[in-house]
Amino acid sequence: MSATSAEAGPGPSWWRAGAGRVVAGTVLLAAVALLPWLSGTDPAMTVLRARSADQDPTPAQLTAVREELGLDQGPLTHLLHWLGGLPGGDAGTSWVSGDPVLPQVTSAFAVSFTLMLGALVVTVAVAGLVSARTLYLGSRRRLRQRQAGTAAAVLAALPKFLLASLLATVCGVWLGWLPSSGWEGPASMVLPSLALGVPSGAMIGGLVEQSLPAAFQEPWARTWHAFAFPPGLVARTALRRVLAGVLPQLLPTVVALVGGAVAVEKIFNIPGLGRLALDAAVAQDLPPLQTATLVLVLLGVAAGLLLQALRRALLGPALRDGALSTPPPAALPRRRSTRWIAGACAAALLALVVAGLLRDPLRVDTAARLLPPSLTHPLGTDSLGRDLLARLGHGALRTAGVALAVTAVSAALGLLLGMAGRVSAGLTEVVSTLPAVLAGLLTTAVTGPSVWGAACAVCLVGWTPYAAQTAALLEEERASGHLLASISFGAGRRYLLRHHLMPAVLPALLRNALLRLPTTVLVLASLGFLGLGEQPPTPEWGRLLSENQPYGELAPWTVLAPACALVLLSVLAVSGTASRASRRRG
Amino acid sequence: MRTTPRALLAALALSPLLVGCFASGEGGTSTGTGGGAGGRLKVALAVPPVQALSPYSNDATVLSKLSVAEGLTALDQNGVAAPALAKSWRQVNATSWTFELRKATFQDGAEVTAESVVNALDHAGAAEVKPRVLSDVTLTAKADDADTVTLTTKTADPVLPLRLASPALGILSPKAYGKDGTVSPVGTGTGPFEITELTGKTKAVLDRFDGYWGGKAKASGVDVIWIADGTARANALRAGDVDIAEWIPTAQAELLDADTRHEVPSVRTDSLILNSRSGIFTDATLRAAAREAVDASALVDSVFGGYADPAQGLFGPAVSWAADDRVEVTGRAKAATAAQVKGKTKGKTLRLATYTNRTELPEAASVLQQQLEKVGFTVKQDVREYTQMEADLLAGEYDALVFSRVTLLDTGDAVAYLASDYTSDGVYNIAGLKDGKVDEAIKSAAGEGDTEKRQQNIMRAEAEILRTDAVVPLVHEKVVQGIATDVEGVLLDPRERSLVDVDTHLK
């Protein structure tokens, strides 16, 4: 955790980073291999169920399955056998189907990887659009006020599965422009890529947009402008400066979609790795699950190394020689509208909560099913005739509270691990691509189904974006001239941490955490089928969205209301902190 | 910009990869553009294959739904055994039957002989994990001559012909059976359609088998895709990507055009199982109170969107004889009043479980929770994926379960379901029922050979079971099949065993 660890020399730190990756990967694979033994659910039963839904679980049948799979030999024998086959390209055979695992996993990976590349293209495009205004104005030195980040917050709050349903219905079914499902050719890629890429792009764009003004304040930018360098060149260079800090976010945001896009894969019927891993995990079918996990681990490490190389290429010798200039604290005043937006969102949410709390969220009235908004039901009713306003209002505190707590814990974890330097880099890469569902299964195995289980599971994987961000920003900060100057003036570690390192990291970390708040709500809800989190009929925004998703076309208000509430929360969080920050400065 | 050539290079390097990723998917579509009469049918099925269409797994129904494989017998509309590969049969004595085979050929060109039938049935009996249909019977097959087979069972089995209609006992060519115990129906069945290609869990290509004994199929082939998500299945039909989409979820059914929406009563009954072995429902008066609290008709129009019938008993309208033979339930316990319920439960909560695999069930649970709370229970739900809770269910960890169950299992005979779910030693006895009279009634039904009397005994057993209030039937589900208007001859089968056959075709 030393401020000067960057100068520790390449030898030992590379070694440490490598060791970190191997250890993290091994621990994860071992945990997966132990899953059936940890969970206490008999794998013979789950395998039998996966093969034949109506089969009676007689002791004789279960014994037959157990013998067939050699389950009594224990986890170690299985793990060693599986590992032994890997060098020869044999990843074992699936317990459920008896087919060799490797071809299944490779084809599913190829599909998911292709889809991820499509999503990456969309991400880049959306991120570009989101940050275009700031980039344009900044490169011409006309950036008088900071952007509120509202556009980014709105787009980042859109649930991917909802976007997917919407695109499939509108572009696939109504307009017939593109296939509504399947994986038949490049045309099938468009809609899922959009559904996955738009929220990710908004998240990345939001971060770029936030760091750009500081880059434009750097001395070089002023000098270049004074010498009438073309704005395009200034923009490109500023972007290059900023991207170095944002690039690592691609790993948990976009690369993680290879294994973490289950909902979108289902909606578009894409035979991807996420679904394969989920099916295998639910059936406790270890060989495919282990192989999928291994593939994701390797992907995470490979992508991590690639992104690191890219960063180095972007920053070049400046990083090595400690010659980065310091981004001065951005002194731009916030727009006035920011405060208005925050106020409006807060007022709307408050009204929603107060109005909702006065109503009964659990009263089922089957006669009032799927009623459109009216005076009696201002936001309409759901499929059981429950008042949506009441459900939203009652769910608000619980949803926002849990999501904020989980985000705070994740961010704190990420900050600590990110400061640990190279050792944690491996862990970050390995966990980044891990689907939350897998973390959920491992958590249920230990804690059993509970409300806290969901929060723990999400924290387990949720810290990676923050760790990656912290590590990247710290590395830049350590390579900056003013830090060296401080050290030469005799600044101690604590001084550096308080006056240089934390101020460089925290604002960006906060923005990142707030942009990810809606995703946290949705991920928490997505673990419900494992029995993690609040049980129905307790209202909770994530559940409202997922339980009403099938009715999205029949009764759009059932999903619109919770989606809008989520957007409001996201915009309030992002613009609220922005206006507070500006007041403090001004 | 300096990075442009690099990005371009990367894009160029990636494009072959992209092509490679889709190539596997495009094999089947090139042949799928027939259209018009005799064209290929495109079918979206709901449950992806788990064991490469092995007849000993869940996948067996696919083989019968798409007329790929046939058994010695088949079930007709009324659930009675009808000739298939066997043109006739007779019972020699209580435990043995002879079947006369018809002249037929396998899709690989081999003749269907007594030997091949014996081989197929022996493999089914010897399968490591026995198919469900053989779980309560030991079957020995012997070839008498080229086209006569004698089947002997260890104990008398009055429903043997029904049993043989099970898709798990489809007769495949000797080539289908691998040394390692795997079974492949690809090109080895006897039906009018032959599987020529199976791509993982995503699609299969079926071509017409011209040598089918029952004449040539009207459609030239079937392209199957598996779409697990109900909304996606409905979308595929609405977008015109497929001609037939099975199991349209209630929420999507209303979005389909009325003339593409076909409802079929199903043999699936949803019920509320009350745990009579442990917990608050060991008290019969509380079970009775729960029964009286439940108003299933509220579920039909809301949760099921009208695609269900309020339950009459365990067996619904899809079991054609059930209504006529139904026996009135007598001798039920008197229901506890709300005050008594509060006193007897002593503040204990009712743990109400259900699972997410069928989307209607969690919704039904929320409605039931309100109904139960009205009569004084305090209810707490536990909703998870089925496999995540099955062990707990069987261990009696819950007080009540909203459960969806197929009442006519592989045998096409109701006794198997009653025996496994409600006898005191039944393996699927989630209700934890231990009732001498119920056991006796089910036993007497199981031993009855005469179809008519067997059905009467089954309905008597139903009344005995309902008397205990260990199960409160809620609704009999209806299945919505989406069928494009230009398709004719799709079979709407309550048992969900047949869908496409020789006569199904595009107009």
Concise description?
The complex is a heterodimer of chains A (586) and B (507). Chain A is an all-alpha fold.
What would CATH call the class of the largest domain in chain B?
Answer: Alpha Beta
Helix content of chain A: over 70%
Which pair has the most extensive contact?
A: A-B, 79 and 78 residues
Q: Please give the radius of gyration of chain A in angstroms.
A: 25 Å
CATH architectural name of the largest domain in chain B: 3-Layer(aba) Sandwich
Distance between the termini of chain B: 58 Å
Q: Can you tell me the overall shape of chain B?
A: globular
Structural overview:
The complex is a heterodimer of chains A (586) and B (507). Chain A is mainly alpha-helical. Chain A is 72% helix and 0% strand. Mean pLDDT of chain A is 86; it is low at 1-10 and 582-586. Chain B is of the alpha+beta class and 507 residues long. Chain B has 2 domains: 6-243 and 484-506, Periplasmic binding protein-like II (D-Maltodextrin-Binding Protein, domain 2, 3-Layer(aba) Sandwich); 265-477, Dipeptide-binding Protein, Domain 3 (Dipeptide-binding Protein, domain 3, Roll). Chain B has helices spanning 4-26, 60-65, 114-126, 160-164, 230-238, 250-253, 284-293, 297-301, 322-325, 338-345, 360-374, 386-394, 415-422, 436-447, 451-467, and strands at 40-45, 73-75, 81-83, 86-93, 96-101, 139-145, 148-153, 193-199, 203-208, 221-226, 244-245, 261-274, 308-310, 349-355, 378-384, 400-406, 471-483, 487-488, 505-506. In chain B, strands 1, 8, 9, 10, 11, 12, 13, 14, 15, 16 and 17 form an 11-stranded mixed sheet that branches. Chain B has a 4-stranded antiparallel sheet with strand order 4-5-7-6, covered by helices on one side. In chain B, strand 14, helix 11 and strand 15 (378-384) form a beta-alpha-beta unit. In chain B, helix 13 packs antiparallel against helix 14 and helix 14 (436-447) packs antiparallel against helix 15 (451-467). Chain B is globular. The termini of chain B are far apart. The model of chain B is unreliable at 1-5 and 23-35 (pLDDT under 50). At the A-B interface, helix 3, helix 4, helix 6 and helix 8 of A face helix 1, helix 5, helix 8, helix 11 and strand 15 of B.
